[in-house]
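Quick question, first post here. What does this chain look like in 3D?
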Amino acid sequence: MAKPDGVVPGSIYLFRHGETEWSLSGQHTGTTDLPLLPEGEAAARELADILRHRRFERVLVSPLQRARHTAELAGLGDFEVEPLLREWDYGAYEGITTVEISERLGRPWEVFTDGVAPGETPGETVEEVAARAQQVIDKVWPNLERGNVALFGHGHALRVLTAVWLGENPRFGQHLILDAGSMSVLTHHRSTRCIGTYNLSPWRLLKDSTPDSTPDSTT
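> Answer (accepted):
Ran it through. Tokens below.
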């Protein structure tokens, strides 16, 4: 049961799907339904070891196969498909990189501040992505009164959801990083909504143990 100050005992565990061909190349992957690469499948299986002794009151997963397969390989196959967890609709920028978009526009481009243009799909504003995120939080709030919740989704949409959880402007998400295959935890400290853990991923664990190693940079 929620405390009088609105704090619930449970936390939200966020999982970005494992690596795909386009997440590796930096191409914006909104509506395109790509499968995981073998490396993405391996990272998802590593999550299973982390989650082996954790119990979740509810597991919601984006309808796209890269998120669904990540949840299955992580050992959380008993999930609900939640369309609200789909990735940002990039409209005309689907399938192209930030560098290519910037070259096309003749100036530096950033999705959180500049938005997208309509294409084969209409695209979404950051405010529309934030509205979906708030609906997800509202949907799982009763479950957080009993325990933890897991959400499997996508990089940009989960970064916006984090900003919404914190009560920040959704554009705050541009200051957060979520690597493919990563796990994060949104929680409370007393009456304040906080980030407990963010962007915990296999390569980051490797980097921490071998300081001279540097992961590939992707968008």
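Helices lie at 21-25, 38-51, 65-73, 98-105, 111-114, 126-144, 155-166, 202-209.
Strands lie at 12-16, 56-61, 80-81, 148-153, 183-189, 192-200.
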